[in-house]
Amino acid sequence: MGALTRNSAITLDAVARQAGVSRATASRVFTSNPRVSDDARRAVEQAAEKLGYVPNGAARSLATGRSDSVGVVIPEPTGRLFADPFFPRLIRGINEVLTAQRLQLVLFAPQSGADEDRLEQYLAGRHVDAVLLVSLHGSDPLPGRLQERGIPVVVGGRPLERSDLSFVDVDNQAGGRSATEHLLGQGRRVVAHIAGPADMPAGRDRWFGYRAALERAGLDGDLVEHGDFGYQSGQAAMERLLARRPQLDAVFVASDLMATGALRALSAAGRRVPDDVAVIAFDDSPIAGTTQPPLSSVRQPIEEMGREMARLVLRLAGASHQVPRQVILGTELAIRASSAAGRR
Amino acid sequence: MGALTRNSAITLDAVARQAGVSRATASRVFTSNPRVSDDARRAVEQAAEKLGYVPNGAARSLATGRSDSVGVVIPEPTGRLFADPFFPRLIRGINEVLTAQRLQLVLFAPQSGADEDRLEQYLAGRHVDAVLLVSLHGSDPLPGRLQERGIPVVVGGRPLERSDLSFVDVDNQAGGRSATEHLLGQGRRVVAHIAGPADMPAGRDRWFGYRAALERAGLDGDLVEHGDFGYQSGQAAMERLLARRPQLDAVFVASDLMATGALRALSAAGRRVPDDVAVIAFDDSPIAGTTQPPLSSVRQPIEEMGREMARLVLRLAGASHQVPRQVILGTELAIRASSAAGRR
DNA sequence: CTGAAAGCGCTTACAG
DNA sequence: CTGAAAGCGCTTACAG
User: Fold this and answer.
1) What's the burial of B176, exposed, middle or buried (CB within 10 Å: 0-12/13-18/19+)?
2) Res B227 pLDDT > 90
3) Using an 8 Å Cβ cutoff, are A313 and A326 in contact?
4) Are strands A296-299 and A332-334 parallel, antiparallel or unpaired?
5) pLDDT score, position B88
6) Least confident of A249-253, B52-56, B134-138, B246-250
7) Domain extents for chain A?
8) pLDDT tens figures, A169-197
9) What's the CA gap between B143 and B154, in Å, rounded?
10) Does residue B8 sit in helix, strand or coil?
11) Given this model, what pLDDT does residue A80 score?
12) SS3 B222
């Protein structure tokens, strides 16, 4: 069972013979080694073209100790993974940097503990040269384990427990704070918060930013309900908030997706946005501009985060010693109709 | 630049020495070869545990001719890829079958022609044992090229031009036809269609199903506008249809996402659904149940499609000869409020 | 059950 | 610039 037959493909030897040179010379052509005569190079290239030769990746990896690929691990249930507009932008940024270095981006989306265990073996087996991890819940042991095995690892988003890991994050707390301050600046006084999961740093930090802003304004920062960053959870959280404090006049929601759900709940409850309740979200994803009314949102430099993650992990891969490094990127507000109008 | 240093890891030799056995015996333990004494097995397992040994993937691949991994290629702009609820379900189905065979699922999302070229080299380099491709536009040359190199390939969705490729598809034409017949059965007479891209088989087949149903009813099947399966395009297409034929009383939309956009356009135009216009979509994704009103939709067995793709490619990988094989899966209607109510 | 040895298909100092 | 040769870290008949 599960026996995959071996497919014989063209070998470097065949190309060298066809071109009338040694294997070494032929190899130099494919490794872009400059010490090859033009004649030899041409002969090898022609032979390769004719035979349809592509170097065997395993053999090359074994000889060089590199795979020229970088793994990106997104341990999200695929449903969430694909629904969240955060990931495509991040991946685009990562891919930009990798492509420039001719490195292959390889994605993994483990769906269970068993998946993750197998993946750890796979990655530890050096199938990739470096690993990027995003969207970790709680304290996922994977990045730490890989790093201990000497595999260069960079985490997207601050890991909850470990401080010896390299990571790139946006300043979630500052973002949450400025979003909340924006609402206060509009004259709102009963400001609620729909937070992300409490076991995710992005969720916690935005929440802490909210609390900090309210405390600084001398207000209570406990009108908080948690969601999972998804649409449904935002709707449900908004309903709970309205039940708890019908007179709330503003809400800071920790993701655009949840905010879309919150808008639906507000509309169902007969509240006008922004007249009755001002709303500001987090992410500034494309959907922020398409809701009714368009959502104010905290803009994250997600592509830049991806680029920075890739740059960082390549630097780690190039170094002999792994010195953890962390990069924090700033946010800015994108103000739209959901929070723009004054109260009266 | 781009030099990734080689990280020395524990080798099988070290484990064998530590365990006091030969490399061959140690190897047998990791390949689950039964011809190993219990004592030797224990010693090797302890040594491996102690040293943190994981077999080097490249070396193993080179020796066995297999990588024990299967690639899934989704050549979509990542934006679309992640927005479409189709992919996560498909991947879940694929992963189910691969996991049972202890095969690693590896994802690729090439974003450009250059990405695809590099990916072809990568896959041709035998980094994976088999390849699954989905969501091909027009006549993507990738699956054909890989197949010619002897790599087992299965395409998700019927390829537009090649008939020598193995594929798994849902019966899009029958689905489009029964959706349209459902609308006709409700007494609707001016039935429009928002089609997918004309260069994608799924788009064409659903459209042909629509035409077939109308022709059979003796009606005109030319009230058609095309979109790209995405939200925005559905909204725009609906607007064009309303402009072309204000009196239309039903519309069959080729995807749930486009239907969501169409609902918005209908609402903006003051049309009630289903009273003025009955709507039925295609996909029956989770969003179908969350729209206002909930969307009737053609249900595709997407997980099963994923499973079938994986099964098929493993069969091809196990065979010495590649005999193209095609599997067509049936659809069914999920009727909800958007098309359920009668006209009066 | 076990080990010595060949071989998987490359790369890369080394010597010319 | 070129080639012979060693080596990358495994697996697997083969002989015992």
Assistant:
1) buried
2) yes
3) no
4) antiparallel
5) 82
6) B134-138
7) 12-55, 69-169+302-329, 172-300+333-340
8) 999 999 999 999 999 999 999 999 999 99
9) 8
10) coil
11) 55
12) coil
Residue in B66, B78, B318 nearest the CB of A91:
B78
Distance CA A237, CA A223 (A): 11
- The answer to whether B115 contacts A102, with C-beta atoms less than 8 Å apart, is no
Tokens 């969720």, residue? A203
For chain A, say whether B285 makes contact (Cβ under 8 Å).
no
User: Chain A within 8 Å of B91 (Cβ-Cβ)?
Assistant: yes
Angle at B285 between CA B280 and CA B290, to 5 degrees: 75
Q: Which of B247, B242, B188, B181 is nearest to B214 (CA)?
A: B181
Q: Does A255 touch chain B (CB under 8 A)?
A: no
Fold of A69-169+302-329: Rossmann fold (3.40.50)
Residue A5: per-residue pLDDT: 46
What's the whole-number mean pLDDT along residues B30-50?
93
Nearest chain B residue to A79, by CA: B88
Which of A133-147, B77-91, B101-115, B135-149 is most confident? B101-115
Place of tokens 């368009």: A294
Q: Which amino acid is at A145?
A: R
Fold classification of B12-55 (topology level): 434 Repressor (Amino-terminal Domain) (1.10.260)
pTM score: 0.87
Suggest the residue from B7, B49, B66 to mutate for an interface test with chain A (most A CBs closer than 10 A).
B7
Condensed to tens digits (0 to 9), the pLDDT of residues B179-210 reads 999 999 999 999 999 999 988 888 999 999 99
User: CA gyration radius for chain B?
Assistant: 26
Contacts of residue A159, defined as CB under 8 A and 6 or more positions apart, other chains included, come to: A136, A139, A140, A143, A165, A167, A201
CA atom of A65 to C1′ atom of C14, Å: 20
B2 pLDDT band, cuts 50/70/90, is: very low
- Determine the pLDDT at residue B163: 77
Angle at which helix B12-19 crosses helix B38-51, to 10 degrees, equals 120
Question: At the fourth CATH level, which superfamily is domain B69-170+302-330?
Answer: Response regulator (3.40.50.2300)
Residues counted in chain A: 344
* B115 contacts on A by Cβ (under 8 Å): 95, 99
User: Which residues in A lie closer than 8 A to residue B4 (C-beta atoms)?
Assistant: 66, 68, 129-130, 314, 317-318
Residues A121, A61: contact at Cβ < 8 Å? Answer: no
> What does residue B178 show for φ and ψ, rounded to 5 degrees?
-70, -30
Residue A82 phi/psi, 5-degree rounding, is -80, -20
Other Cβ atoms less than 10 A from the Cβ of B35: the count is 7
Q: How many CB atoms lie within 10 A of CB A192?
A: 28
Domain covering A172-300+333-340 assigned CATH 3.40.390.30 in the classification: no
Helix (H) / strand (E) containing B175 = helix B172-185
The letter for the amino acid at B144 is G
**Which residues does A300 contact at the CB level (< 8 Å), separation at least 6?**
A170, A175, A282, A283, A284, A329, A331
Residue whose C-alpha is closest to residue B129's, from B95, B110, B100, B106: B106
Domains A69-169+302-329 and A172-300+333-340 share a fold: yes
Q: What is the pLDDT of residue A249?
A: 96
Chain B CB within 8 Å of residue A267 CB = no
What lies within 8 Å, CB to CB, of A108 at 6+ separation is A71, A72, A73, A74, A119, B105, B106, B107
Q: Which of B69, B71, B55, B131 is nearest to B102 (CA)?
A: B69
Specify whether the CB–CB gap between A290 and A333 falls below 8 A.
no
